[in-house]
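thread: overnight batch results

M.L. [08:02]
morning all. the overnight job finished for the chain we discussed friday. pasting input first so we're all looking at the same thing
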Amino acid sequence: MRPVRLLALVFLVVLAACGSRGPDHVSGFPPQFGDAVPHDWRGRNVPAAYQVHGIDVARYQDHIDWHTARASGVRFAFIKATEGGDYVDPLLAHHRAGARAAGIPSSAYHYYYFCRTPQEQAAWFIANVPRRAGDLPPVLDMEWTPTSRTCTRRPPAAEVRQDAAIFLSILTSYYGQRPIIYSTVDFFRENEMWRVQGAEFWLRSVAGHPSEVHPGHDWTFWQYTGTGLIPGIRGRVDINAFRGNEQAWARWLANRQQR
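M.L. [08:03]
and the structure it wrote out:
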């Protein structure tokens, strides 16, 4: 098959996978964005099909000019808040204030450890993330922690899903919005996270489109690179796409922003 025909076929497959929530047309990947270490996969230019892009940040992004980032195409931000039951990201408040001042809707996320109960971790998150009108739903980041110095426990899948459901329920009651679940490829598969009732997903997939890596499963946000380069942000940053066009993004915000 000729390269041009192959590229066209890949693109059409991706747009078909987007379904009714996909883009009406290709608006182009924000030209200011780059990738320090792009993966060599056949669809690496597919993010161009999505119109709304954002970032997720933590203390590692220690210098962000949020106004420049917004002018470069950043439309939303997921900001690290807490881990387990005893850690708060030192730049949480700084990043939240910066994103809000620049008019970028943001959310805070919790990195889960399986050595504490979901009740303890939910209480820790709530204690450190004040409820604010206009924020995006909070995020539960669930992935294995093999390099942790304190917790490498890997419970069975049923327990993982039960913990997730308890955490989601507690935060839903407090924030008025059900949290999004972030998951890596292996964790999502091994624990069959799609079985968590009512869950909305933000999925990592840096070497393939979610329709190929997570076939048959729904998602709202796609983390497509962990080595992004964006004006206004010193160093590398994760970049994400929202699954939908501008109209879908407006509808999602209307339904999912905290009040």
